[in-house]
Amino acid sequence: MIEAPILVAPTGMHRLAHPEGEVATARAAASCNTIMVLSFTSNCTIEEVAASCDAVRFFQLYVYKRRDIAAELVKRAERHGYKAVVVTGDTPRLGRREADIKNKMVAPRLRNLEGLLSVEVESGGGSNLQAFASQTHDDSLSWKDMAWLKSITSLPILIKGVLTAEDGCGSGLNGVIVSNHGARQLDYAPASLSVLEEVAEAVAGSVPVLFDGGIRRGTDVFKALALGAKAVMVGRPVVFGLAAKGEQGVRRVVEILKDELELTMTLAGCPTIDAISRSHVRTEQERLRSFM
Ligand SMILES: Cc1cc2nc3c(=O)[nH]c(=O)nc-3n(C[C@H](O)[C@H](O)[C@H](O)COP(=O)(O)O)c2cc1C
Ligand SMILES: CCCCCCCCCCC(=O)C(=O)O
């Protein structure tokens, strides 16, 4: 049981933010008694993160054209005590990251993949991240592949990147994560908060619905829970905390969110998480309707 419904979202390459990388993030998550979702594109390995501290961890998966690689990493995560697989469904190709291309982004090595495929990438004068993703990610990924994923693991599977009611209730998996990938994939994809309620209604409690995107304050956590999320995940603020002060910085980010959530609950008259209800928030549409 985690202390607050606030998880660490999978974000790639933590050594870009701090030399200790994902190990520092994992230790912070463990000391805050929360769950870290380790990115497939981590700089520290699945094993290093598992050995760094005692905590519940999930493993995020990108499905590669080379299914043997995806399967191998899932098996390693399973062997090292990760408790669930989060399959990211919104990145069959990487969105066009113009800043990365312009800046000729050079991503550090993905050490999980050493010995499985060449991690040296020719960027063609642009971003090596973009080049690597287009060589490796399976752009034909679809729902039928979830049967394959189920066949290779006994861990619960959550699908990340759901933005419609249809996808939410059609997944047949163990959990749904409403997310637009931090608006990094497709311009004009809806804000994840704007679709949370319709997805949660469609799922109707059959599996947990998690949420990410723009959680910056405890009030944001509260709003997401009121609109149907069981828990939220936090992406950028964790990376900012890591860059600022390593493990301690990540811990501080999670603590601030927890404290703010607690204050929000108290002021909204909610003694428990379960007491947070739909009637605690008013959407912009509802506000406008109230004038009519
Ligand atoms: C720098 C960065 C790296 C990310 N890497 C991954 C990744 O490896 N796998 C993944 O599923 N999502 C990735 N995401 C998306 C996050 O999991 C999450 O959906 C998003 O950041 C949530 O929004 P927030 O940053 O506003 O909290 C990344 C996001 C950022 C900002
Ligand atoms: C040269 C190795 C880098 C390969 C990275 C491939 C894609 C990473 C995508 C991470 C992500 O989801 C995000 O940045 O968003």
Automatic annotation (TrEMBL):
PROSITE patterns for this protein: FMN_HYDROXY_ACID_DH_1 (PS00557), FMN_HYDROXY_ACID_DH_2 (PS51349)
Residue ranges annotated for the FMN hydroxy acid dehydrogenase domain, each copy included: 1-286
InterPro entries recorded: Aldolase_TIM (IPR013785), Alpha-hydoxy_acid_DH_FMN (IPR012133), FMN-dep_DH (IPR000262), FMN_HAD (IPR037396), FMN_hydac_DH_AS (IPR008259)
GO molecular function, one term: (S)-2-hydroxy-acid oxidase activity
Keyword annotations from UniProtKB, A to Z: Flavoprotein, FMN, Oxidoreductase, Peroxisome
Any one GO cellular component localisation term in the record: peroxisome
Cell location: Peroxisome
One Pfam family matching this protein: FMN_dh
Predominant location category: other
EC number(s) per entry: 1.1.3.15
Cofactor: FMN
Domain of life: Eukaryota
BP term (GO), one: defense response to bacterium
Family annotation (PANTHER family): PEROXISOMAL (S)-2-HYDROXYACID OXIDASE GLO3, S -2-HYDROXY-ACID OXIDASE-RELATED
Similarity remark: Belongs to the FMN-dependent alpha-hydroxy acid dehydrogenase family.
Name of the protein: (S)-2-hydroxy-acid oxidase
